[in-house]
Amino acid sequence: MSEYWFSQPEFEGKALELLNVLPTPEFVQNFELDEKDFINAGKAAAKIKNALKQLGVVPAVLRRVAIAVYEAEINIIAHSKGGKIKCSYYHNCILIVFDDYGPGMEDIEQSIFPGYSTADELVREMGFGAGMGLPNIKKNCDILHIISEKGKKTILEILIYFG
Amino acid sequence: MKTLKEFLPLIDGKILTGHTGFDKIEITSGYVSDLLSDVMGNAKEGQLWITIMRHLNIIAVASLVGLPAVVFPKNILPDHTVIAKANEENICLINSSLSTFEIAGILYRFLHSK
């Protein structure tokens, strides 16, 4: 099993603590993703973006959330046997957990390296597979936590603050 | 302010979507890429996107990034599901017989002329 943590400099060293002190969410949304279902890619990102827009979240944050969620959706659709998304809304942040049905990653550090990709021909034809997904997620979130086990599954958590 | 309406005749562009408000679309800049993650990561809101990709995913990307219009070069025609989705998301789709290089060049000159 491998685990990966990343946080923007202002949250450095506090990521675990910040995730642990999250209260009960104000509301939760769930989504399902199917393997290779590129037609529905982006639906969760659009719905989450709209929900946040209605909550009055500023456009710059909407964009960060939309990009991170869309890339994570694509990752599940392109590389896993499908999975689910649980999105928890808080007064000052959003936590999105992507939980797939495998097959997990060999080495998270390698997968997150810009340009590294295991994408097949279909994924590349769709305009993805350039090894930019995880780097894009990293760039747009405040805290990123990934747990993966080869042959099992991957859980990816993203926390983004509104302010 | 530079608008899409002024730019279209320069590339002999045809609007594929049933856009009613297209004459109000302002273009601030352009972005050329066929790699969706690159567009997601680097394109800026309000840019005109030129791409040969015609899969449905481009509409999701344009909508999430805030790109008001997509131009397909070389008379590339996306299928009707893509056009329908673009109408739903209020993204203007355009095609032109010119190449990506020519469209980008004309756009650059258009945006930088007084």
What is shown here, in short?
The complex is a heterodimer of chains A (163) and B (114). Chain A is an alpha+beta fold.
Relevant CATH superfamily of chain B: HprK N-terminal domain-like
Low-confidence regions of chain A: none
Helical content of chain A stands at: 25-40%
Question: Might you state the CATH topology name of chain B?
Answer: Udp-n-acetylmuramoylalanyl-d-glutamate--2,6- Diaminopimelate Ligase, Chain: A, domain 1
Number of individual domains of chain A? 1
Structure summary, number of beta strands of chain B: 5
Uncertain stretches of chain B = none
The CATH superfamily of chain A is known as: Histidine kinase-like ATPase, C-terminal domain
Name of the top-level CATH class of chain A: Alpha Beta
Task: Give the largest chain-chain interface (CB within 8 Å).
Answer: A-B, 24 and 19 residues
- Round the Cα radius of gyration of chain B to an integer and report it: 12 Å
Q: What is the rounded distance between the termini of chain B?
A: 10 Å
Instruction: Classify the oligomer.
Output: heterodimer
Q: What class would the helix/strand composition of chain B place it in?
A: alpha/beta
CATH topology of chain A: Heat Shock Protein 90
Describe this structure in words.
The complex is a heterodimer of chains A (163) and B (114). Chain A has 163 residues and is an alpha+beta fold. In chain A, 34% of the residues lie in helices and 26% in strands. Chain A has a single domain, classed as Heat Shock Protein 90 (2-Layer Sandwich), CATH 3.30.565. Chain A is built from 6 helices and 6 strands, in the order E-H-E-H-H-E-E-H-H-H-E-E. In chain A, helix 2 (43-54) runs antiparallel to helix 3. Chain B has a single domain (4-112), classed as HprK N-terminal domain-like (Udp-n-acetylmuramoylalanyl-d-glutamate--2,6- Diaminopimelate Ligase, Chain: A, domain 1, 3-Layer(aba) Sandwich), CATH 3.40.1390.20. Chain B is 38% helix and 16% strand. Chain B has a 5-stranded mixed beta sheet, with helices on both faces. Chain B starts with a helix and ends with a helix. Chains A and B meet through helix 2, helix 3 and helix 6 of A and helix 2 and helix 3 of B.
